[in-house]
Amino acid sequence: MSSIKIYHFMPDKLNLYGDIGNIIALKQRAKWRNINVEVVDITETDDLSLDECDIFFIGGGSDREQSLATEQLKKIKTQLKNAIEDGMPTLTICGGYQFLGSEYVTPDGTRLEGLNILNIFTESKKERLIGDIVIESETFGQIVGFENHGGRTYHEYPTLGKVVDGYGNNDTDKREGIHYKNLLGTYLHGPILPKNHEITDYLLKQACIRKGIAFEPEKLDNTVEEAAKQAIIKRLLKAK
Ligand code: GLN
């Protein structure tokens, strides 16, 4: 049986709004294709190698958890940057997404240093951006989720898509997330993957391609997932 490894970074600290559901979705959709998934929980990064990592996942966290996690991530910064440049499928949520940039400025003006892996900048305000969100993506079609963040993120990379309803990266440019090589960063919790099977399959497919494993997207019937997504979109857009 084919097998892939998901490295789950600091699951004990970074699991806001059910982000662990992303791991469950990846495991289940891989299992339905007879691909075995081993989840490796990463709590410390001393001597960590990413050589065997097929998908890297970082969930969201509060400002406190975020700074603790940054200390661990700093130790593998170069490896992580190289792996992202090399096309390692990576999913980072909210605080996990903010980490990748140069800095995170808290509402009181404190400047927390980020990993500086990408040219992303985040400043946070007391007034939070909260609610359900609908995005239109050229790659993934319609995306739905839930967001709750003080951070406003700015960058010039390709994004996950255009915000149809909600906030996204910040409260001005109506763009959500980042899609750089096979790195996806997003403010969507909820969690994002069980609600958006296209993104789950994208990550699995890229992991399989890199590992030389056959991947059959057409093998699954997504009728239930599609109906659930359309019901959410209908409810949200009707409520306006
Ligand atoms: N501390 C960040 C913010 O509020 C991240 C929160 C989160 O991961 N939901 O912007």
UniProtKB/TrEMBL annotation:
Classification via InterPro entries: Class_I_gatase-like, CobQ_GATase1, GATase_3, Lipid_II_synth_GatD
Chain ranges of the CobB/CobQ-like glutamine amidotransferase domain: 5-196
Coiled-coil annotated spans: none
Its job: The lipid II isoglutaminyl synthase complex catalyzes the formation of alpha-D-isoglutamine in the cell wall lipid II stem peptide. The GatD subunit catalyzes the hydrolysis of glutamine to glutamate and ammonia. The resulting ammonia molecule is channeled to the active site of MurT.
The protein's assembly and partners: Forms a heterodimer with MurT.
PANTHER family the UniProt entry points to: DETHIOBIOTIN SYNTHETASE, LIPID II ISOGLUTAMINYL SYNTHASE (GLUTAMINE-HYDROLYZING) SUBUNIT GATD
The name this protein goes by in its record: Lipid II isoglutaminyl synthase (glutamine-hydrolyzing) subunit GatD
